[in-house]
Amino acid sequence: MPDKFICPLCGDILLRENKSLKCGKGHCFDISSSGYVNLLTKSGKKGHGDDKKMVRARRDFLSKGYYSHLKEELQNVVGGIIKKDCVLLDSGCGEGYYTRGFSDIIKENKESEIYGIDVSKEALRLAAKLCPEVQFAVSSAYCLPFENESLDIITTVFAPMAVSEFQRTLKQKGYFINAIPLEKHLYGLKKAVYKNPYFNKPENTELNGFELVKSAEVKKELTITGTEDIKNLFMMTPYYYKTSAEDQDKLEKLDRLITETEFLILVYRKI
Length: 271
Prior knowledge:
By secondary structure, the chain is of the alpha/beta class. Helices cover 27% and strands 28% of the residues.
């Protein structure tokens, strides 16, 4: 179990004692039956994360390989960076689809470690089953349970970007890898649902304290068959809870969808 997690209350290193993690000051955090530990405190909360419906929709959709092209490119990026004794954190890891891919790369370097954090307990229940070798904690990206300059690589895939915490916890010249949607990502899905579909707004790629050392666009047109897969795709997006019932009903009539997927992978180095 973890030897890198720190106590969210006092900052001491947490050590395993039976089925709990304890610090030198006596603070204790139980390890769940699923294998993750809850280190989320009120001061670190930024909402409760994705609910059970969204988490399971994402798991069911991703498990069919629709986004495997993105996972494979992320694996290539991590594989080109990782060195001996690396510590990688997948921040906002969700149900663990991409964490699984990073772990497969980490396995090739047995002296390296991988951790995952997310604010959603529902997501980590699935992640811990999918990646039993990864050390997971319920925690906010805005209050990471790691010491200063203790991580070599941080990854985020469509997750909150807590730049100041990434700066604090990354070692000098450590890497931050971020995957974000491009302007036309899922435009075909939007056309099927909305009367006036729109492009995603371009994101600012400049980060204080980091230099951009590499970027790569990953694009692929998907053909999705079956109403269930189409609905799962929509439910795993932020659009789902912002869309009227009338527009959501349009998905019930679809059994085939063609849509763009367009991702941008950004690789930063701490300066």
